[in-house]
Amino acid sequence: MKVEVKHWHAVAQWRWDTGVSSDDTNKGDDDEGDVCGICRVPYEGCCPACKVPGDDCPLIWGECSHVFHMHCLLKWIGTAASKQQCPMDRRPWVTAERKIGGSPISTGNVTGSNGPTTITADANPPRPPPPGS
């Protein structure tokens, strides 16, 4: 018997590396571990300010281990009610230094209505070299 493939369709899936294993996020029915604590949209989706998920809607990690869409956190930090605190545990917000591939992620300063805040975000993650190079 001879088989000939006339068409095929590739399927791909991606996830943000939030530091939570996929086993941990699948334990409960509501998957609290893989949604932004501010907008309640899954990390694989995009925040309400964005139209397309991915590198243009990055995640940001706090030293308290909470993760948010960067745009959601910037909007939160810009409000007077935030008092520059984590929205989940109300500790002072300090952005965690995350390393990808052995190199730290770039750091920038953002000024909100309550003064300057240092934000570290994975806005431009390193890309792997193309196959064959």
From TrEMBL:
The answer to keyword Iron-sulfur applying to this record is: no
CDD domains assigned: RING-H2_APC11
User: Which Pfam family is one of this chain's hits?
Assistant: zf-ANAPC11
Checking SUPFAM superfamilies in the record gives: RING/U-box (SSF57850)
Keyword annotations for this protein? Answer: Cell cycle, Cell division, Metal-binding, Mitosis, Ubl conjugation pathway, Zinc, Zinc-finger
Feature: compositional bias, Polar residues: 104-121
Listed under GO cellular component are:
anaphase-promoting complex
Q: Can the keyword Cell division be found in this entry's annotation?
A: yes
- A single MF term (Gene Ontology): ubiquitin protein ligase activity
**What are its GO biological-process terms?**
anaphase-promoting complex-dependent catabolic process; cell division
Region annotation (Disordered) ranges: 98-133
* Leader sequence residues: none
**Domain RING-type, first and last residues per copy:** 47-90
PANTHER family, A to Z: RING BOX (PTHR11210)
Q: What is this protein called?
A: Anaphase-promoting complex subunit 11
What is the source species? Lentinula edodes
Q: What is the lineage of its organism?
A: Eukaryota, Fungi, Dikarya, Basidiomycota, Agaricomycotina
